[in-house]
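Box S2. Input/output pair 1.
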Amino acid sequence: MMLDPLGGIVITNDGNCILREVDVAHPAAKSLIELSRSQDEEVGDGTTSVVILSGEFLNIAEAFLKNKIHPTIIVNCYMTALNLSLKYLEEIAIEVDVNNEENLLKAIDSCLSTKFVNRYNKIVSRLSLEATQCVKVENIIGKKEIDIKRYAKVEKIPGGDIMDSYVLKGVMINKDITHPKMRRYIKNPKILLLDCTLEYKKAESQTNVEILDENTWNQLLLQEEIEVKKMCEYIIDSKCDIVVTEKGVSDLAQHFLVKKNISVIRRVRKTDLNRLERITGATIVNRCDEIVEKDIGTKCGLFEVKKIGDDYYSFFVECENPRACTILLRGATKDVLNEIERNLHDGMNVAKNIMLEGKLLYGGGCTEMRVSQYLIKEAANFDDSRKSVIESVASAFEIIPKILAQNSGVNVVKCINELRTKHEKPGSEKLGIDGVTGEIIDVSSKNIWDLLSVKKQIYKSAIEAASMILRIDDVVSGIGKDDKIQKPIKNEF
């Protein structure tokens, strides 16, 4: 539980969320926080692991620096170890059938097992997979594209139970129609998306109008009415049923449109407009006089306005091949909903990474122990000074199984020694630590998996961040102390 600067409460076990709320002054600490943020943006998982590993690589470097080994040699050894590790990860990775939903769900379950939602793993894993599959498309050259950030929107509605959450294969907007007499239920609607205002356009610079009599004032009002009517006529001529605009809509425009039985939704976010464009087949129009027939979206099967709780929501559903979705989350409180959203984000990223790459590694610290053993063997091929650094990097990888053992409450030294001994024997490539009981188990039997893409990104980011900090010779502050700031010299002449 954390208190943010505005007095709000954040309850989470998400590494990136915790570090984002922490206020630090040290530049190296800021670098590690940035590292966690970039890990979250890149692959969506492994935010805690990357900071732990990076800290451990810096920790082992301290002894070498005290022994007068130059930072450049240490950094070169780190990069050699990184290249060896990445090569070995590719060798031991396991191919997974991305068309088999059961395999995908097992991998997502494994990712979410340490999260707040582990009691509801089945439902959150299912939501993550459904949402990711919905936004998956193939580009012109046949390559898969999955843009979760733009096309999978999470809508949080307090109340109800998490089991009531579902994936809506369409778009839901927290908006109501602008006029009570407009239609709230339309089958197979024709949808027009606008990025312009439906009101009299104000001048960009200050404008003064001189009104000499009442007739001039009436002419001015009439001109405004004519302009709005002209815009509405273009919309009416397009024969659309619904107008969705990012900007405002005047009362006069609503009057003209409601007479022609056209529903209007205004001040919609740009991101929601982009998702509507994707599911309806419409094109966003910037000026009313540029509307053509092909700009109208016809792929939506149903438009409906519903009241959930105290708010009205507009639903665009039953779409022909929807390539965007809305995940409707229900939960007891806002804190619970925020944490479920963070966990769902991780789950969707795991699903995305498996679909794009389709390779898994054994979890529970098993991969780190195997990489550690591999690096120790490879270190024998280098001279003494480099050998000792690479061996230390190998031992640093053991921090992951150590923390798993520590969190489960077992004797850490005994557990790691036992795991290390077993990994030295053949046929032990599936042995790792159960994060709940602390026992050494066959991780594949409990479906404890890691993603190859996540592991590679963790190793790259951790070693590169540690190397960058080790290369620093001095810290030069660009902020002067108050007593050292030179005061301006007064002109005495």
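Box S3. Input/output pair 2.
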Amino acid sequence: MEQVKLEGVITAIVTPFNSDESLDLASLEAYVEHVIGVPGVNGILTCGYSGEVTSLNREEQLQVVSSVAEVVNGRIPILTGVEPTSTRDTIAFGNQLKEAGATVLQINTPFYNILRRGFINNEDVVVKFFRDLAEGIDMPMTVFQYPVSSGVNYPAKTIARLAELEHVIGIKEATSMETYEADYKAVEGKTAVFADNNTYTLLGMLLYGSQGSMVGIGNVGVHLWTELYGLVSSGETTAAVEHMNSKIVPLINTFSRDLGQTKFSFIARVKEALVQMGLIPGGTTRAPEPAITQEDKEEVRSTLLKVGLLT
């Protein structure tokens, strides 16, 4: 297995579409070049939920990974999200993603299906799933904890066992602080733990010892997120809190407050911000994702002005 170390800011990038909802690979490649040009970006996550993985078919995901790999050209790790179905299918697709240029697989939970949810409490089933992937794909993986969105949560004792697997190089935490602390203690330094909360607890996770962040809202003003991590990692806590309150909290209020519970689309607003900043040409999302509204556009613009991303 290729050795990959994850740390710092990993940007969970959006997937640009043309107005007809087809992939806009040219804009994707230009945007990736912009992101990795920001000092402090140490990785890119393609085809996460912010990248609309659930709206992409397998061939499109391979196209996205291949295009990103061509631009990155080995400069930083490329993570890609995987929506598992069966173990067999996940291994087959994982090997295709590896061939396309991915360096790390983010394994979303296969247990959100109502008939599988009970398995989350069976450590042996969960560990076997990840061990089988490791043997069948032989590449680094991250485990995604996102109980609010998925409805399931790996217990800390299961996380501890997963951290012992050589191929599991990170735990991505979109959780409560309580769950984050339990998981952080459970891994005991055996693997990296990443903050993935697009909310106010992000700073708390970083201060508690997270090895980095991996958030979709981090597309908006990428340098603001690398600055936050830089302040935390250098021990400048007071400055980090001030930066969080003045720059990050306004973004959270506009883009990711009550994430998953709002009528507006988080992804549509993030893409609109990138359009207004001139980073992508269009903010098309794929139905049934709601399109951007005029009210959304105005709120996005107001916030970008407030935090200095527009003048």
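Caption for Box S3: The chain has one domain: 8-236. The two ends are 47 Å apart (CA to CA).
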